[in-house]
Amino acid sequence: MTNRSGNILLTGGLGYIGSHTAVVLAQAGHRVVLLDNLSNSRADVADRIGRIIGLRPVVEVADVLDTARVRHILSHYAIGVIHFAVQQRRLKQARATLRARSAERHRDLEEMLGLIESQR
Ligand SMILES: NC(=O)c1ccc[n+]([C@@H]2O[C@H](COP(=O)([O-])OP(=O)(O)OC[C@H]3O[C@@H](n4cnc5c(N)ncnc54)[C@H](O)[C@@H]3O)[C@@H](O)[C@H]2O)c1
């Protein structure tokens, strides 16, 4: 995928919302690149997306906190980014405390800011 025009990078692209968004975007004619650290997803989700849209999407297994890697991926593929990568496991635990939720949100915010920084 050398032509960056029309590419959209989905962070958390193998997750629930990311994978469904990937299908919709691909069916609308966009090329999608899925960045995910597999912390709450499996690589074979890309195979299932591929069966639906007729072409297996490019997957970059990476963490959004890895700024250098994200910068490289953006420069190589993406012209647009949709950020879905969040650490949800602790949020989904019934006994999560408000403090834990706050820390989780802080980390999510840090990840998003790192992503924005990578695009400079
Ligand atoms: N699921 C819902 O019903 C729903 C509804 C509305 C909004 N949302 C929002 O959509 C977003 C995604 O939610 P989801 O349900 O798809 O979650 P999800 O856990 O299914 O997907 C998140 C993906 O991000 C990946 N990820 C987590 N941390 C990462 C990191 N540091 N680097 C790279 N990848 C990372 C995980 O492996 C996972 O594949 C969240 O912001 C959520 O609040 C979800």
Structure in words:
Helices cover 47% and strands 16% of the residues. It is an alpha/beta fold and 120 residues long. The chain is globular. The protein contains five helices and four strands. Strands 3-2-1-4 form a four-stranded parallel β-sheet, covered by helices on one side. α1 packs parallel to α2 (45-53). Nicotinamide-adenine-dinucleotide (NAD) binds at residues 11-12, 14-18, 36-41, 63-65, 84-88, 111.
Highlighted features:
47% helix; Rossmann fold; four-stranded parallel β-sheet; binds nicotinamide-adenine-dinucleotide; 120 residues
In a few lines, what is going on in this structure?
One of its GO terms (biological process) is galactose metabolic process. This protein has 120 residues and is of the alpha/beta class. It contains five helices and four strands; from the N terminus they run βαβαβαβαα.
